[in-house]
Design brief:
mainly beta, 6-stranded antiparallel β-sheet, 4 helices
Length: 398
């Protein structure tokens, strides 16, 4: 259950972020993109002319046009470009978070290569603070390619692999001290349900905290669990000394007596897990995540047990593509998928054959659907170390 904290109105070409209002801000970069199918030498340069390129909004992808009528579809590179009118402010940090790109993405800002992500289904994130232009005019360019690669699963399968920026892209602004966004684009916070019973839940929290300053910083971490009515039902905290210019893990343990258990379709109860980084009474950064407390087991003779009781699993496989859209589906499309699954009386969904969107996983959490989540390891593997490493990173993304 991983989610980004603050979702604000999106679609700004000219962005003004007010650091006095929020410790963290998140803008959806869905508009203002220009696109060209094929490889375009020099397209990463700010002075490159893209006036004849197609104007698109995200999410966007290619390949479905031919695939859905039974033709061979294009598998190769395509380019995206977008202006960022953003002048960096002192004491702030800036990140680009891509929810996914098919299948290999190379990202550039102002002509500089920020990095590469290999794999069509995982999120990835780059910090851009030091690469932003002081004048506020920036050029973001992305080369995405769905060409087959020997180290990138799936190497084969009974589904198509489309190309492009088919999930949202976010610009995130934080304070200089923040929960890390660059650990496989996770929230930087993990709530591990170490022990859950009807009488007590023990939760071990790992927080990756990044200090973007060159100074040692005394701060306080506070982890809280809120019930569905917003009441604080458990919390803990500790003082920490952040080493300068370092990202490091910190650990806390939260104990909740008599937890209200997440009980599938019958009672999908969710707490809200909140972790804050504080300087005195000021919140420097915070991350909120849904938290369903439950325990389960599998018996080879008796089946699946949820919270100590037999729980019958019957459901469907779900792919993320749509007619006339391919993978570039909307939240409304995913809402409809969930309604159909629930209408069939399902208690579980297999998210085949790859990592699905954070949004769909969160819908399942709220609806009480158990999820089988998996990697895109289908039919074939490559014996090379490169394939093993890319697959490992895909697993960490998931």
């Amino acid at each position: 259950m991983k989610r980004t904290l603050v979702w604000l109105c999106a679609g700004f070409t000219c962005m003004t972020l007010n650091s006095t209002l929020f410790a963290r801000e998140d803008l959806n970069l869905d508009s203002g993109w220009r696109f060209k199918l094929g490889d375009v030498p020099g397209a990463e340069r700010p002075d490159f002319s893209d006036t004849d390129w197609q104007t698109v909004t995200l999410p966007h992808n290619w390949g479905w046009e031919q695939a859905q009528i039974g033709e061979n579809y294009y598998r190769g590179p395509g380019w995206y470009r977008r202006e960022l009118d953003l002048a960096p402010k002192p004491g702030r940090r800036y990140f680009l978070r891509f929810e996914a790109a098919g299948s290999v993405a190379d990202v550039y800002l102002n002509g500089k290569r920020l990095g590469e992500h290999r794999g069509a289904f995982g999120a990835f994130c780059f910090e851009i603070t030091r690469d932003l232009s002081a004048g506020g005019t920036n050029l973001l360019a992305v080369r995405a390619s769905n060409a087959p690669e020997h180290d990138v699963a799936p190497l084969s399968g009974d589904f198509d692999v489309y190309g492009g920026l088919y999930r949202p892209v976010h610009l995130i602004e934080t304070r200089e001290e923040c929960f890390s966004l660059t650990d496989h684009a996770s929230p930087g916070v993990a709530w591990l349900q170490t022990s859950v019973t009807p009488t007590q839940a023990v939760i071990d929290v790992t927080a990756q905290i990044s200090n973007g300053t060159t100074n040692r910083r005394p701060l306080t971490i506070v982890a809280s669990v809120l019930d569905a009515a917003g009441r604080r039902v458990a919390d803990t905290g500790q003082s920490v000394q952040l080493a300068p210019a370092v990202t490091a893990p910190y650990w806390l343990r939260v104990t909740l007596p008599n937890p209200h258990l997440w009980n599938g379709r019958e009672d999908p109860y969710l707490y809200q897990a909140v972790i804050e980084l504080r300087s005195g009474d000021e919140v420097v950064d915070s991350v909120e995540q849904p938290l369903g407390l439950r325990f389960y087991s599998v018996d080879p003779d008796r089946g699946f047990f949820l919270n100590g009781r037999p729980y019958h699993l019957h459901g469907v496989n779900r792919h993320q593509d749509r007619w006339n859209k391919g993978w570039a589906i909307s939240e409304a499309d995913q809402d409809e998928d969930l309604r159909l699954i629930l209408e069939m009386g399902c208690t579980v969904v297999r998210c085949a054959h790859y990592e699905h969107s954070d949004y769909f996983y969160s819908l399942c959490d709220k609806a009480g659907l158990l999820v089988w989540a998996e990697l895109c390891q289908v039919n074939e593997i490559d014996p090379s170390p490169a394939f093993a490493e890319t697959s490992r990173n895909q697993l960490l993304d998931l």
